[in-house]
Sequence to fold (116 residues):
Amino acid sequence: MLLSHGKKGKDMLVHEVFAQIFEGEVKNVIVCENYPVANYLSKMIFGDTAFAVSVSHFPVSIGDKYHDDLFWRTDEETREDIVINPLPTQEQGIAQLKAENEELTLALAEIIGGAL
Fold:
């Protein structure tokens, strides 16, 4: 369970996103307060072999596949299954932007003939 500090220093619940998996396919995507509840709901709706997987950092959709602990999406043109990679965390995104900014600054300095 994730907590965030709300007004007046009180902790507030931050919900998570889960995929409901049945027979190797994402059947639904839900927002829930924790894994046990999401997993219970998955089993109640789709049967005893269904389960939930946290997808807070994965851009998954109903119909995507799940096997080998990875999410997969079928490419519409090639009909090949492609792994769905997780989205970068905020920290990773900031680090990537800083690195790109540094590269662009150096390239611009070269273009205008300045030195840093």
In short: Residues 1-5 have pLDDT under 50 and may be disordered. The chain is about 30% helix and 35% strand. Residues 2-85 form one domain. The two ends are 46 Å apart (CA to CA).
